[in-house]
Amino acid sequence: YGYKWSEVYAQDMFSIFEENGVMDTKTGMKYRRVILEKGGTKEALDLVQEFLGRESNNKAFLKSMGL
Q1: Which residues form the Peptidase M3A/M3B catalytic domain (predicted)?
Q2: Cα dihedral angle (29, 41, 43, 16), rounded to 10 degrees?
Q3: What is the spatial distance between Cα 18 and Cα 2, in angstroms, rounded to a whole number?
């Protein structure tokens, strides 16, 4: 069950890269600054939401599953 949720969060974060371009420098730097540099200093879900700029949802995951 936990692995599926990690896929939901991963797809949601990747959707930001898809929107802005996978090689977009600003998006990559935001990911680095918010997710990688902060590491375990905050709850993981808080970091994900900070990166997304909104609450996480399952839309990108469902789309990736063809639903």
Answers
A1: 1-67
A2: 0
A3: 24
Q: For residue 36, which of 24, 19, 22, 50 has the smallest C-alpha distance?
A: 50
pTM (global) more than 0.70: yes
Over residues 5-41, the pLDDT tens digits come to 999 999 999 999 999 999 999 999 999 999 999 988 9
Domain ranges in the chain? Answer: 2-64
Residues 46 and 33: beta-carbon distance below 8 Å:
no
Alpha-carbon Rg for the chain, nearest whole angstrom, is 12
Handedness of CA 16, 22, 27, 28 (dihedral sign): positive
